[in-house]
Amino acid sequence: MDARQDILDQIPMDQLAAQVGADEQTTRAAAEQLIPALVGGLQANAQDEAGAQSLFDALGDHQGGTPALGQVDTREGQQIVSHVFGANQDEVVNRLGGMDGGAGGDILKKLLPILASIVLSYISGKVLSGGQAGGQATGQAAPTQDADAGGLGDILGSILGGMGGGQGAQGGLPGGLGEILGGILGGGRR
């Protein structure tokens, strides 16, 4: 099972749809777009040492498994989104919404802070628990806190690669999403 499906399976889609005021099908389609975008943004941030350390620190704050929807702090999730996409958040949402089959920008904006916390918790389980998240083993060894940017970036790349493409922030995202993020984020943010 790919990482996106693994994350989606941990989310009660009916509750998420009710929370954002949309139907389940639309909510699921939007989540399917946003999850790889978030992981790709995190990978772009991990391309430099300071970004990797910042991400590693954030992962430490999100241990313990996927939070229940009622426990997701959307203010904290918005901080994660701001950190991942910076001033480009609206452009990411607009481009995702404009892709073939893309969900509307309003639902994408509502979902981003919710999914950001969930995705960070999922990745934390993969990275800090020696590859255990949602009961799935990845075979990846957990990096130490002094892991270099390449190690964390490689783990994120392998997660992205399992979402429908090759590795890398630009090649690992499905449906042209890699080109969108690569163009918007450039070499990554911190």
Q: Give the topology string: H per helix, E per strand.
A: HHHHHHHEEHH
Q: Going across the major beta sheet, what is the strand order?
A: 1-2
What's the total helix number?
Answer: 9
- Structural class, by secondary structure, is mainly alpha
Low-confidence runs of at least 5 consecutive residues: 132-149, 165-172
Entry summary:
By secondary structure, this protein is mainly alpha-helical.
Structure report:
By secondary structure, the protein is mostly helical. It has one domain. It has 9 helices and 2 strands, in the order αααααααββαα. The chain has helices spanning 3-9, 13-20, 24-45, 49-60, 74-85, 89-98, 105-128, 149-161, 177-185; strands at residues 132-133, 136-137. Strands 1-2 form a two-stranded antiparallel sheet. Helix 2 packs across helix 3, helix 3 (24-45) packs antiparallel against helix 8 and helix 4 crosses helix 8 (149-161). It starts with a helix and ends in a 5-residue tail after the last helix. Residues 132-149 and 165-172 have low confidence and may be disordered.
